[in-house]
Structure formats: C-alpha cells, structure tokens
Design a protein that fits this description.
Blueprint lengths: L1 H12 L4 E5 L5 E4 L2 E4 L7 H9 L4 H10 L1 E8 L3 E10 L2 E9 L6 H4 L3 H6 L5 E6 L6 H15 L3 E6 L12 E6 L7 H8 L6 E4 L5 H12 L3 E6 L4 H10 L3 H14 E11 L6 E9 L2 H8 L6 H7 L8 H10 L5 H7 L12 H7 L22
Parallel strand pairs: 7-11, 7-12, 8-9, 8-10, 10-11
Antiparallel strand pairs: 1-2, 1-6, 2-3, 4-5, 5-6, 12-13
C-alpha cells in the first residue's frame, strides 16, 4: 500500500483527476485533461497485481477473477475518496483511480449557470445532465444535490455507481445507495425508491429503456428526478431517450417527455488559454410550450433554433458560448474547434493537419470530416 499511497499523494499534490496504473507501463496522471508520465520504472505485472490486491477484500478479488474488472471506491485518510476501476489488458492488470473531493462542491464554487439553481427549485419533473466521460457531470449533479440538501426539507435518494461525493443530511434527509453494495440494478432500485417516500431521486445513469421509463414515470408522479446521459448536446439527449424505445412506444414517450421534462444541461470541459485550468461550457435546453410542442410533433431537430433565441429563459447553445470565450481570449480557437458540435463556426481555427487532409478528400461533412465518405483525389 505504501507505493500506492505515494502515487495517490502525487495525484492529489498535482491536482490531477486520475491516476493510471498499468502492467509493463510507468504510471500516468491526468492533470487538466492531459496525461502526464511520472518518472518511474514500469510496473512489473506481478508486483502491480500484489499492490492492487492489497486494498480489496476477498469478495472483491473473487469478483475481479470472475468478471475480469471491478468497480469500487475507497477513502484514504488525509487524501480523500477515490473511485477505482480494475481491469485486465494484454500485459496484465491495470487500474484507474479517480480523485473525488470528500465533500460536494457548491453551485457557486463551480460557477455554474443560474439554470442549475433554478432546476433545483422544481417540485417535480426530469432534469438531465449530459456530456462525454470526464466532462464533470457527476460534479455538477453533486453541487445541485448539495443545494437541495442545504435548502429544502425533503427526502433525497441517490442511486450511484459507485457513490462519489459524500452528502450528510442537512435540512433534508439524504440516503445514498451504491450499485452492488446496496442494490443490484438501477431499474429495481428505482422501482423501490418510489415506495420510499422520496422528494428527489438521483439516478446515476439512465442506462436502459426500463430505467428511462421509470425515471420519466417518477417525474410524472410528483418527484424531482435527476439523471445523466452520454450525449454531446441537449437536442441529441432527447433523441437518445426517444430512440431507446420501439417505434410503437415512441409517441407515448414523446408525450410523457413533453410534460415531465424540465431542463437538459449538456456540458464539456475545455482547457483555458493559460493552461492552468478547465472551464465548463454548456448547452442548455429549458422545456417551454414551444419545446414541448416540437417534442410531441417529432421535430426535435428544430429545437436548436429555439435555444438560440430564448436566452431570457436560460437557454444557451454550447457553440455560441465557446465562440464568445474565444473572442474574449479565454480559450484558444483550435481548442474550441475540437470541442464544438458545429465545426463550421470555428472554421478559421481548424487545425492545419485537418486542413491538409481536407484538400485530399472529395467530401467534407458539416461538422468535420465524414470518414465514411472519404475518397482520396487522384494524384498526378
């Protein structure tokens, strides 16, 4: 454990997010989104397996041997809480330790948009936070749950995989449950939660059709439900939900969503120009009567135009926020191009290697190179 402790101390000291340990490789830490190599000898597979095995129980070892992967979390005194994943690759065992603060951040600390605080005030409905892996979804949700816990006299149930931020009951009563330890599946835990007198339910991830259906039903029946998806924009989140159902059920889901949806917040973390931190940029959709009509009428592709013109209601297009940040000198144009959903807005900052590639292909799609349609031009 001593070597592992030293590595975790390095992760925290460098203010990194993740520690990567792999057989036959030196350790890496991710700092502000970049992977940095530590000056150490590569890990011998047997030595690494022994080190990683020293911090898990016999039942965890059995699960790892059976499933070839393992998810859990650990608390290390004076360092904090770490979400951990063990897995095997061609050289042997590997692990990733995600550093988590011992207490949840506040909405103010994260400088989240005002809509996040407003979303906490709804008596019921569905609030979705989306984004790619590592975009800070869990942190944003933790801040929102913390706000409810500190300000409302209600019962909050969280269903997580695993528990990341630790919440203690304040004005509200907190019950945090972890997949594997406290329940066996999200859908079963969500069914049970409806019988546990909750006011607010956090579903760590809406992974399948039944969990999505239950989350929407819970939102319709008087609960405030928070969930996550891995999508890059607010309109795409709606499509992901609707497309998870068979055609015959989609009309009903559209109708339910049009009534129960409150807010979709889609976010990405982008490095700042000075290289010292990362900023969250958001796609924000607020469900008003116009949006609800488009959802019912199968016209979600038109929602983006409403988001552009409804800033007073808290709506926002991520690409526009990125463009404003580039003009203000906060982030680099090329970095914004990489994060943007519509690359055309950032054409002048297209990386040179992509520009060079574009001159040798016959088709360039709207949001970048469409690799399915790449054909090299004849030379000579």
């Amino acid at each position: 454990m001593s070597n592992l402790m030293t590595l975790l101390q390095t992760l925290v000291k460098e203010k990194g997010s993740d520690l990567h340990l792999a057989s036959n490789s030196v350790p890496f830490v991710r700092v502000r989104g970049e992977m940095l190599k530590l000056e150490m000898a590569p890990f011998n597979p047997k030595v690494l397996e022994e080190m990683l095995g020293s911090i898990i129980s016999a039942s965890n070892k059995q699960e790892l041997a059976q499933n070839k992967q393992l998810d859990f979390s650990i608390k290390v005194n004076n360092l904090g809480i770490f979400r951990v994943n063990y897995f095997y690759q061609k050289h042997g065992i590997s692990a990733v330790f995600r550093s988590l603060p011992s207490t949840a951040p506040t909405i103010e600390m994260l400088n989240l948009p005002p809509i996040c605080k407003m979303a906490c005030s709804f008596p019921n409905g569905l609030v979705i936070v989306t984004g790619p892996t590592g975009s800070g979804k869990s942190t944003t949700l933790a801040a929102m749950i913390d706000h409810i816990n500190r300000n409302d006299k209600g019962h909050i149930i969280t269903l997580e995989d695993p528990i990341e931020f630790q919440h203690e009951s304040q004005k509200g009563l907190m019950n945090q449950r972890e997949l594997g330890k406290h329940f066996t599946s999200f859908k079963d835990a969500l069914k049970a939660a409806l019988r546990e007198d909750p006011d607010c339910i956090l579903v760590g991830e809406m992974r399948d059709q039944e969990t999505i259906q239950l989350a929407i039903t819970a939102a319709e029946t008087g609960h405030l439900v928070f969930g996550t998806l891995h999508t890059n924009s607010a309109p795409k989140s709606l499509d992901r939900i609707i497309d998870s159902f068979e055609g015959s059920a989609q009309a009903q889901i559209r109708s339910m969503l049009s009534e129960s949806l409150r807010v979709i917040i889609s976010q990405k973390l982008v490095p700042t120009k000075d290289g010292k931190s990362r900023m969250a940029f958001h796609d924000i959709l607020v469900n008003n009567s116009a949006v609800a009509n488009l959802i019912r009428e199968e016209k979600t592709y038109q929602i983006g135009s409403i988001m552009q013109t409804a800033k007073r209601e808290g709506m926002q297009i991520l690409d526009q926020a990125l463009l404003e940040a580039v003009k203000a000198g906060v982030i680099d144009g090329t970095v914004a191009w990489e994060a943007a959903n519509d690359k055309n807005l950032f054409a002048q900052w297209t990386p040179k290697e992509v520009q060079n590639l574009a001159t040798n292909v016959s088709y360039v799609g709207k949001t970048g190179l469409d690799t399915a349609l790449l054909h090299k031009k004849p030379t000579g």
